[in-house]
Amino acid sequence: MTIIVCPKCAKKHRADTSKVAAKKKFLVRCKACEHKFVFSLDDSQITQPVTQPVLKPAIHEQPATQIETPASTLGMKTPRKICVTLSKGGVGKTTTAVNLSAGLAMSGYKVLLIDTDTQGQSSFLLGKKPPAGLTELLTGELPPAETIIEARPNLDLLGGGRSLAGAKRIIDKRSFGSEWTLSEALEKIDKGYDYVIIDTSPGWDQLTVNVLFYADEILTPVSLEVLSLHGLAEFIKNLHAIKRYKEIDLKYILPTFLDTRVEQPKDIYRKLQTIYGDNVCTPVRYDEELSKIPSHGKTIFEFHPDGDAAADYGALVRTITGNKNLLLGAPTNPIGTPEVS
């Protein structure tokens, strides 16, 4: 237990910092004056440790000290945590999150897909109607086993939906460490996966901030139009505020809706390559089949494995894994990549 002193009104607050002691910095809100400030557990002017009386063990009791066993010896994994995000809507975030997750799962990786959008479209694209999901996990209403469902072999789903609006309000009311709410909820769950893919909603809200504090890598789909370029620039500006508190990298920029018959998308793609270099992935070509799959509840690999979109999302899976020779578990077909002249 720690006493946190507001630098504005000098009000003292008790906070249990044991769960988040490993974090470097926090954004805190004083309940008395509503002042928000950043603090570190090493700052003696803001934090005052509360000493607890040390109870001596009885003669026949075992000492309370324990030797921690490394996670690797317990068979626990350290998953790669990738959020698929951009403040602008209509760029293919959910389509990308679902098909990337499906492709990784088909390649033999254990994947958890988390939907943090109030529209709950990840479940819809996979043809699932989960009875519970992320809201119940965040609020503690249900245990993880009752909130996560199997969507495909190797692919588990933690669904979103309208109820997340209430969860956002609960997060916002926390005066201490609200940005770590999602991380705390997933702390004991994600160790069973190779990849955790998080689909986010358009805009910039408290839940999106939670996702960025949880994830280690960012994949940003960018539809090849001028407004999306503007949205990417604004997103990168906002990301700098997050990077003040934790390390997170914008590793992948995925151009979407590339129509090779039109010159403007190709020009924008080349501009992305010039500005962001190797961070730009193989683009996803325009494919009519992508607009059809939601009504069938299938991934692009299931619905149209021979099409351009399946080939391009297959290329994305290879980029993410770093394995150019990776074979997805779909029917084996020659996979080409789009050429932009």
From TrEMBL:
Entries under CDD domains matching the protein: ParAB_family (cd02042)
Pfam families registered for this protein in UniProt: AAA_31
InterPro entries: AAA_dom, DNA_Partitioning_ATPase, P-loop_NTPase, Znf/thioredoxin_put
Family matches, as SUPFAM superfamilies: P-loop containing nucleoside triphosphate hydrolases
Domain AAA: 80-251
Protein name: Chromosome partitioning protein
